[in-house]
Amino acid sequence: MSKVKKKVKTIKIDLDKCNGCRACEVICSAFHAAPKYSSNNPARSRIRMIRDPLRDVYVPVYAGEYAPAECMGRDKYIIDGKEYDECGFCRASCPSRDVFKEPDSGLPLKCDMCEDLPPDEKPLCVQWCLNDALIYEEREEEVEEEVKVEDAQIGLESLVNKYGFEKIADTVARMSKKA
Ligand code: SF4
Ligand code: SF4
Question: Among 13, 31, 150, 154, which one is most buried in terms of CB atoms within 10 A?
Answer without folding.
Answer: 31
